[in-house]
Amino acid sequence: MRTLAIDTLQKTGEKVTLMGHVDNVRDHGKITFIDFRDRSGIIQCVGQNLEKVNLQSAVEISGIVNKRPENMVNKNIASGAVEIWIEDLKVLSQADELPFDMGKEVLDLQLPTLLDYRTLTLRHGKVSKIFKVQETLMEGFRRASKSIGCTEIFTPTISASSTEGGTEVFKVKYYDHDAFLVQSPQLYKQMLVPVFERVYLVSRAYRAEPSVTTRHLSESIQMDCELGFVDFEELLDAMEFVGRETVSYAVECNKEILKDYGVEDIKINKEIPRLTLREAQKIIKERTGIDHTNEIDMMPEDEREICKWAHEERNSDFVTITHFPTKKRAFYTMPDPVDPEYSLSFDLLFKGVEILSGSQRINDHNKLVAIIKEKGMDPESFKMYLQAFKYGMPPEGGFSFGLERITMLLLNLANVREASLFPRDMERVDFRLSSKKKETKKKK
Amino acid sequence: MRTLAIDTLQKTGEKVTLMGHVDNVRDHGKITFIDFRDRSGIIQCVGQNLEKVNLQSAVEISGIVNKRPENMVNKNIASGAVEIWIEDLKVLSQADELPFDMGKEVLDLQLPTLLDYRTLTLRHGKVSKIFKVQETLMEGFRRASKSIGCTEIFTPTISASSTEGGTEVFKVKYYDHDAFLVQSPQLYKQMLVPVFERVYLVSRAYRAEPSVTTRHLSESIQMDCELGFVDFEELLDAMEFVGRETVSYAVECNKEILKDYGVEDIKINKEIPRLTLREAQKIIKERTGIDHTNEIDMMPEDEREICKWAHEERNSDFVTITHFPTKKRAFYTMPDPVDPEYSLSFDLLFKGVEILSGSQRINDHNKLVAIIKEKGMDPESFKMYLQAFKYGMPPEGGFSFGLERITMLLLNLANVREASLFPRDMERVDFRLSSKKKETKKKK
């Protein structure tokens, strides 16, 4: 019968069998100390005359659980009050020698190495914890969405036309036809508003942008809500609720990990400040002297500055910016009836970066057809989408955010690739694509 | 302030404002009856001299909540004890005239029409309920997986090589390279076993099989678990637990819907009968006289017969079949050490059809390389996957199942396409692909 590391605390004096990986080995002559890891955590095991075992090997250890002397208790690990005296060590799968040192608290590797050895680097405690946080962000999103009455839906990723206009889409050979990977589930979730009224979904966003930045991925996990029968104020309330609850659930669940990442002072305030783009630009001008009041979008430095303002003046690491210029937003965005040059759109910023974006949508069939034509697109490509508007589409709106980006921001990671288990970008699908090309050529 | 239909029960005598869609209209001269639908359910509204409103239109209705006389209570709907006397009816979005009758209890349409008008047919009560059940199957899966200690992970759908061998993959133009849509997240979830030990995930499965059947989709939602440090018995226990709990959670949550679908006698037994393929074939031979004892797989009629046996003899609508011939299963399947011609593989059958499939995996690096070569594949294409096995891979195994298929079976749907919001197959991406081709040609 196997015991988990964490359960040894209740078994002092007993013999147990553990199964897991070897995280670290310290040889002191005849005596060997092993940092043993299983899904419940780390525990120290001590043995004499052990057979040689490489780091990361999968092992089965049988031994006696001993209380550690008070002054030897390791408070950094949950099972730090006990250790195992090894009676038997069985190597289930011997690892090769590691290509780099994994014993340090921080894995000090360049990004290409981190990704080239992804199956290995993910095993490092500090790296795997990123995805423990990510899991709770997702759970927080689902809990928040459900609590406002959303039904979970599953939408396709293969589409017959390029979803939202633009050329930055991946083309798929679909039997004898061309199809495309969706840039977002946007059009599908809107079609489902008259069915379920409120929906949430976890989907994929594929972006074929031929650029390499620290905050974009070619494939990412997207979280979405779409709500029928809401006006702009109700939509902003729902959006801020879901954004805030998603983050605060993850913060609640991961206090230790956040501390480990040096993230301690996150200000989550029930009152998220709301500014129009123009108001935000005015505040930035007053604070910094830099005049961006005629720009049609926030610059990255504007996002940072307005978040600094919200942190300092409004006790909030979130800030909502509304009313972006209509022509800057996607075709389905509702112009503000009061001033149609601006739109009923919004971004939610968190710690200096936009994490979530959305809008009230145009829900009139004929207006939609007109705007699609105006943008130089063919209504025929939106036939199924437009069908939904023909048969009664309520006033509605929604929003979406990327799982990897919010993970990156919460943990202050330098690059969004660190927040994706197997990131895809222009240059990499698991390995660098350029290396793949060379190999193929060599074979020929 | 908007009131949901279901909340009118607590507001008899009060004036309320409802927002939703018009499901049905019955005109009796001056008096009009409207079946009104919002996300909480259906309620009857009655008014005089109303403006004309088409079915499915989005409306706002203000009126007084009245108790219905005892003999007029509609027990089929949750708000059947009250009705609304309409004082004001505002049409928020007028629908076009419907192309078919949506007022009947069952939407009596051929599959092509059901799908050509998907945004409309999904609004029919009986159709949308399919996806209410689907949502709870997913929730049941997540609850069960979490309860056995799995971490939720997110794996990519774009891959550098065709995942599991075979040619039935969709090719993606990925910047200047060729990439593929994964047939399953199999290889990625295995790589994460040494990281999290137990993982679960919801992903996509893409199958470019050039065939049209009632139970396959080109894109489907796949649910997966993968567990480290388990032997075959423990794996079977976990698999049966997750399969059974997924279904029984949905059954618990949807008693009314299941009754509506004529599904009333589902036998969920904690003891799921386990048979090897050969044992199952022997039982089938004894029961039917049909001798399939030399076949290397279950025929569809065998699956139905052995499920009939389990239902009649073991009080269970589930049955587990193990030990399929090694050469019939994917390359990573562990052969049975006792008789390597058969493998440590299994299928879980439910109501006559396989819903879930999995195996103990080969966890030895060199054996994996050998079998990949033996199958005529190139180990270089599995470089990242094999990396995980080089650095200590525990004994492990896992399983996966399709969300749409299990939804179809639970509700006795005739075709898996009915269990997908927007099904993709060889002939259809929203609309029939052949029609798309013609239109493109016409334009030229």
TrEMBL record, chains A, B:
Keyword hit for Magnesium: no
Keyword check for Oxidoreductase: no
InterPro entries: Aa-tRNA-synt_II, aa-tRNA-synth_II, aa-tRNA-synth_II/BPL/LPL, Asp-tRNA_synthase_2, Asp/Asn-tRNA-synth_IIb, NA-bd_OB-fold, NA-bd_OB_tRNA
Residue ranges annotated for the Aminoacyl-transfer RNA synthetases class-II family profile domain, each copy included: 131-423
A biological process from GO: aspartyl-tRNA aminoacylation
GO molecular function, one term: RNA binding
Family the UniProt entry places it in: Belongs to the class-II aminoacyl-tRNA synthetase family. Type 2 subfamily.
UniProt main location, coarse: cytoplasm
Listed name of the protein: Aspartate-tRNA ligase
Localization annotation: Cytoplasm
GO CC terms in record: aminoacyl-tRNA synthetase multienzyme complex; cytosol
A family per Pfam: tRNA-synt_2
Domain of life: Bacteria
NCBIfam families: PRK05159.1
Keywords associated with the record: Aminoacyl-tRNA synthetase, ATP-binding, Cytoplasm, Ligase, Nucleotide-binding, Protein biosynthesis
